[in-house]
Amino acid sequence: MKSVGEICSDLIRFDTTNPGSGERPAAEYVATLLADAGIQPVVFESAPKRTTVVARIEGDSPEALLIHGHLDVVPADPAEWRLHPFSGEIVDGDVYGRGAVDMKGSCAMTIATVLGMKARGEKPRRDLVLAFLADEEATGEYGAGYAVTERRELFDGVTEAISESGGYSVPSGEDRVYPIAVGERGTAWMKLTAHGVAGHGSRPPIDNPVATLVHAMSRIAGHTWPVRLTPSVAALIEELSRITGQPIDLERLDAEAERLGKLGSLFKAQMRNSANPTMLNAGYKVNVVPSSAEAHVDGRYLPGLQEEFLATIDELLGPKITREFVSLEEAPSAPYPSSFFDELAASLVAEDPLARPVPYVMSGGTDAKSFDRIGIKGYGFAPLMLRPDLDYFGMFHGKDERVPVAGLEFGTRVLTRLLT
Ligand SMILES: [Zn+2]
User: Fold this and answer.
1) How far apart are CA 167 and CA 170, in angstroms?
2) Where does the Peptidase M20 dimerisation domain start and stop, copy by copy (predicted)?
3) How far is the CA of 96 from the centre of ligand 1 (A)?
């Protein structure tokens, strides 16, 4: 039987860059591993080579748990890396390559966990659905988005899900804090258009849409979004105060986030909405004022705050700019406190006595948003013990992405505890 480190290496060697040539070879590899262990996978494509693998394992209770991961990765430039990003080489106990952390390592843990359980003849406590998806690194349209609309039946009976971006260790003195995601900020990607009067560039400006647009972008970029502590973020801050033994001052949270370093980054981007101008497009000739100008803004809002977010955006834009959504996604949140969260936490503590599991909200988004649409409550839980020198989120989409084999083995033990 292949080890979790070997499976991770193998997966990294399939170049599943998105955009690129698709996930098919990696998906076929996963399907073969599962089939060889007697788990019958369903393999489907939303478009040629955009391949997803789903498998169901019967457990003692029909209330199913979904474990999903994505097989695609973001691009990597070999010139910037110490080792080739698709080598999957293991050096000094670390597997190197694009996707080691995000999230082929996690997919390898899921596979190693179920193969191990099969080999030992262990049945999961509840039905288990595994999904290895295409296209998470874009919009998920060819992966999770397609799966929940076109292959909805594969997820019948699923109540909860676990996936990426949580359950990893963050050093805190003698302890290790493990943030478990209980929600994500929502996405509001917007295209903004300013309309005006076209004319010669030498004339006094009448109604110049380029000027209107840049003034509005400047207001958005300069806006200080007010702190809005949602219950999960408030709970995290309280837990961190307790764990570090130093109360966190709610009146000066930005400074506190700085003081706490890596721990502070767990709430720094999660205590308010945000909007960043990211694209500008206007004009075609230096001496012509165009009749319109366009910009794109990446907006993110906390669970329950979509209305407030959009009202603020409209105020900042003013009357001359129209907005439309390129993508509008709800901000999902999973129950916390909850007995399932406690199960996740207990499985970590059982393998790491120094573990201090805490709830947190993701600043960005994952496939959990798609599954939330069909009523599946998602938790960010891909258990991983990291050495203090490895910065988990620094490696997400970063260069020299790598994951310790020992960390993957730890995660596999935690998952096995959770499932059996
Ligand atoms: Zn990911």
Assistant:
1) 9
2) 182-315
3) 16
